[in-house]
Amino acid sequence: NGAVEKYNYNGGVMSVIKKGTGSSITGTVTRFRGVPSNKTMDLSNVTSYPITAIGDSAFACENESNDLTKVILPNTLEYIGDRAFFQTYNPTNNFDINKHLKIVTYKNNNGTEVLPSNSAYNSQYCILPDTVNYIGNYSFLNNAFRYVKFNQINYLGIAAFSVNPKRQKNTVNTVMNGKIEEFDIVNTSKINYKFILLQKLSF
After folding, report:
1. Which of 37, 60, 90, 189: CA 20 to 30 A from 10?
2. Rounded CA separation 175/195 (Å)
3. Which residue, 74, 63, 10, is CA-closest to 36?
């Protein structure tokens, strides 16, 4: 429970549940509907209080209508819900990389976006803040990452990063490599490695 606040933000309306009092106030993003400006969503500066959770299906795109291709997460984020960034893929059509999420990152304490150590992945990657400890089921299903990195996860959901298409075609019909090529996971003593392997094999 908590107070629901709505923000006219970046070409749409974002709903946030505000919980707590004083210095303990935190927020959960529950819904965004609209077409984001420049296909980018910066969640690091939406509210005056820290965002610690993104709820189930908050940014899910069932019909490619929002064209979201880049998300900057708050560096206070702890929880990513089921289908939070799920995107539909129609296998009968060419995969248009410009209509799928390609970049997920966050800003470090200096306000600089975090990039992959290998610049070859700079246009298609998902790097989660170290504060994230829960990644829900199907949370990034059908997106376009080549590189995924996270740390200290307590729960990795079913098919969280699965079904990223192995071959993608852009609007000029040039074949692009959309398969996750590197899966960088750190300090995963609480995760079943067999489960991670099964997820990797499903990419």
Report:
1. 90
2. 31
3. 10
Mean pLDDT, residues 150-161 taken together? 82
3-class DSSP assignment, residue 143: coil
Contact 180, 203 (CB under 8 A): yes
Cα angle, residue 9 at apex, residues 8 and 10 outer, rounded to 5°: 135
Polymer length of the chain: 203
Cα–Cα distance list, 5 to 9, 47, 60, 97 (Å): 12, 10, 20, 33
Mean pLDDT for the stretch of residues 25-36: 90
Q: Strands, DSSP E only, in the chain? A: 3-9, 12-19, 26-34, 40-42, 51-54, 70-73, 79-80, 103-106, 125-127, 134-135, 147-151, 155-156, 167-169, 175-177, 182-186
Give the residue-averaged pLDDT of 60-81.
Answer: 83
pLDDT at 191 over 80: no
For residue 21, what are the CA distances in angstroms to 24, 49, 95? 5, 10, 45
User: How much is the average pLDDT of 172-189?
Assistant: 51
Q: How far apart are CA 50 and CA 200, in angstroms?
A: 32
Select the more confidently predicted residue: 127 or 62.
127
- Look up residue 145 and give its two tokens: 């990452």
DSSP character at residue 18: E
Least confident of 69-83, 102-116, 140-154: 140-154
